[in-house]
Amino acid sequence: MTGWDDRTYPVWLRGVSTALSINSQMVLYGNVRDQFLLPGRSGPELCDLRRAVHRMLRAEGYPTLAVADAIHGVGVQAEPDVSATTDGRDGTADPAAGSAARPPAIKIGPWRGAGPDLDRVADLLTQTAEAQQRQAVLVDYASHLVLDANRLEPGEHHFFARCLRLARSVYPRPAPPDPRPLYNPVIWVVENERDLPLWLTAGNEDIRKIAVPLPDLGVRQAAATLLAGVLPGYTEAGPDDRREVEKRLAELTQDMPLRSMMAIARLAMRMGTRLDDIDEAVRCYRVGVYDNPWRQAHLRDRLRDATGTIGARVRGQREAIQHSVDIVTRAVLGLSGAHAGNSSRPRGVLFFAGPTGVGKTQLAKELTQQIFGDERAYTRFDMSEFSAEQAADRLIGAPPGYVGFDAGGELTNAVRERPFSLLLFDEVEKAHPRILDKFLQILDDGRLTDASGSTVYFSDTVLVFTSNLGVSEQEYALHAAAEAGGRAFPRQELEQRVRAAVNRHFVSELNRPELLNRLGDNIVVFNFITRTAAEEIFSVLLDHIAQRLRKEHQLQLELADPVRRQLLDGATANLTFGGRGIGSYLESALVNPLARELFRRDHPRGDRVVVTSLQRRDDTYQIGLQ
User: Fold this and answer.
1) Where exactly are the structural domains of the chain?
2) Is this prediction's pTM over 0.85?
3) Mean pLDDT (whole number) for 187-201
4) Do the first three CATH levels of 297-525 and 531-625 match, i.e. the same topology?
5) Tell me: the pLDDT tens digits for 244-265?
6) Residues 6+ apart with CB under 8 A from 304
7) Angstrom distances, CA of residue 569 to CA of 449, 534, 564
8) Between vectors from CA 180 to CA 176 and to CA 185, what angle results, nearest 5°?
9) Do residues 92 and 50 lie in contact, with contact meaning Cβ atoms separated by under 8 Å?
10) 297-525 placed in CATH 3.30.450.20
11) Quick one: fold of 11-212?
């Protein structure tokens, strides 16, 4: 008997083989519900964990593997010729299947928790571990043996106490004709290593924990070669095209199990996806929607005139608008992250930086309108509400055992419900650094795992961050001095100051240079509001007031020329708060007194309302109407 030492088998399975001589029990955790590549007669083959373990044990001289789980009870896996399958069955055979089978003497059906059922399971484990011949038992779905491994009932505690004593009391022994001293192992299969009581496994050298990892690139490439044969057009394609689609499938499925690769291949076959469009099958698997709105013709039509359309609503920000439209255009063409060969990153990322009230949030709304046809089709997060460390739970959900665990996270829920959307994170510099760590994963991998363990993909979202970094009292003073001198604050100097402040914030203050690196050239700097831009904003906001009055009351608003000039001078006297300050002034000086007068009077619908005078008395504006 030479033993089992095939280097073409998964590392974790070789670890199980090694542990046969040094550990009486093992805990397999992690990616345990996946399919695994094992060498077969005609090349690599896929099989589940039970068959993989049984195949290794047969090579080591164990003819049978008893499999116990709380659903199917106990069976014996002992096929005369164990070959891999791709159907995902658990492989548990009837005890009568094959002459090599040695079924356990204890017959156990599906059990219902603590008490006699668990006692019989413990009897089975003891019988297997102490048998003179080679035997092994695999306890599958062990995560569901008890309701809470940290709060055991007396019967459950007794069961695991027997398992602990068993791990300590048995020794490896030879089984003629095999002279090697090996254990008859008890193999626990759990999703998480903490699903078993901590006192059973912690510090226990007789119980080995073996992680079953996600497949690496080499395994995914081998699986892609095996699965690509079902893709439409693969048989007719040339060798180079075949190799390219296999390589692409392996790269796109990073951090995915092989079961996901199998599902993507089935989806591509069902949808008739072309070989050169395998990205679409992967995208569809992630977000669950086959139609890709980023490829709609009307989206390109809207973006052709986006700069002018947005410029009519966001005044004085020509450079910022053009930079933003360029990034969105790149996103529509699917070229975001093209330099890194990573298509899983968000479609677009923009970091709006500059003075307050200059149109950062409004530009985000306008981009939403151009992309999705509705400026309200975005999700906004005020990051000042996430300044505490524990506020991260609001984004991805509370941990298990905490209040609100079942509700999920605000961010992950929003993306799960609307995978094609714009996410606006206002005043991101006010968020706790731990929150920014979440953004690092999103920007790098385009995905985020919530508290329940579900993965949400951001590959079809546009992320917009806003910030006032780099605009302090000094910059406002320089801008005011430039305005007084009849010139604009130099944009190049403003960009340098803002970018330096953003760099200082992320690198020196937060010690997160990697986050700044992910933003790259997507930092969009906004200008101060100049006098000319302020006059344009004033006219736009005045038109909005007139339109609302016409819509709500069918009244035609007109301003006498002196009143209009007076309002304009007051609205543009101090541009520290930008366009938002202009709006606030108009609300106080015009909308409030106008509403007061209209409430007092009974104007017939269709009338003209002419504001003939404007005065301020006792900090209250008064208007005269005609």
Assistant:
1) 11-212, 217-290, 297-525, 531-625
2) no
3) 92
4) no
5) 999 999 998 988 999 999 999 9
6) none
7) 53, 10, 9
8) 95
9) yes
10) no
11) Rossmann fold (3.40.50)
